[in-house]
Design a protein that fits this description.
Blueprint lengths: L11 H9 L8 H14 L4 H5 L2 H7 L5 H4 L4 H8 L8 H21 L2 H6 L7 E2 L13 H12 L7 H10 L3 E2 L6 H5 L3
Parallel strand pairs: 1-2
Helix pairs in contact: 2-7, 2-10, 9-10
């Protein structure tokens, strides 16, 4: 793809992710939870690292089924800590279990995680018009609000930078550069 955003840097998996997923609005609860989990694991690391472990994460975390994750016990946490296919960070693993319960609570209260999260965007994606990567912010007023609201509901590893990365991944914000063909494509 000519004029693609430069951040995939020639990595085939990153290119495929950029060209098919990044910035596309997501309304499926399980997929939204997957991005919340993966973006929390990304904290302090690169997205490339997480993306290359994504399939192992899906297997290790029961395809991001929050109903199963909330039942994880110490034995399962120990098993995950031994899994070299994922990022073995006990705080992030425990946060995933906590966040799964918070996710289920929101689903119960609002009917879906999707309905709850999209309210922070007035139910439509924010379309930015950046010329270069250096213009992309690490957070926004919307990610600040989302982070604060999710933390208030008990989520952890959910700061504003993680929320903004989540918003980019799940299409709450279109941060494709205006020169990238995907900028227009994801708006359709």
């Amino acid at each position: 793809m000519e004029n693609r955003c430069p951040w995939p840097s020639g990595d085939d998996l990153m290119i495929a992710y950029h060209d098919t997923e990044w910035g596309v609005p997501v309304h499926d609860d399980r997929k939204l939870f997957e991005f919340i989990v993966l973006d929390a694991f990304q904290a302090g690391l690169s997205w490339k690292t997480v993306l290359h472990k994504r399939e192992a994460f899906r297997t290790a975390f029961d395809d991001f089924d929050a109903g199963k994750i909330v039942k994880y016990d110490d034995k399962k946490v120990d098993e995950l800590m031994q899994n070299s296919g994922i990022i073995r960070n006990k705080q992030k693993i425990l946060a995933t279990i906590t966040n799964a319960q918070c996710f289920l609570d929101i689903q119960k209260e609002f009917g879906s995680f999707d309905a709850y999260l999209w309210q922070f965007m007035n139910n439509k994606p924010l379309v930015n018009k950046w010329d270069k990567l250096s213009q992309l912010p690490a957070s926004s007023p919307e990610s600040d609000m989302m982070s604060k609201a999710l933390r208030k509901r008990g989520f952890s590893f959910i700061g504003t930078t993680i929320c903004y990365a989540f918003m980019q991944a799940a299409g709450f914000v279109n941060d494709h550069l205006i020169s990238c063909p995907r900028h227009q494509e994801v708006q359709k």
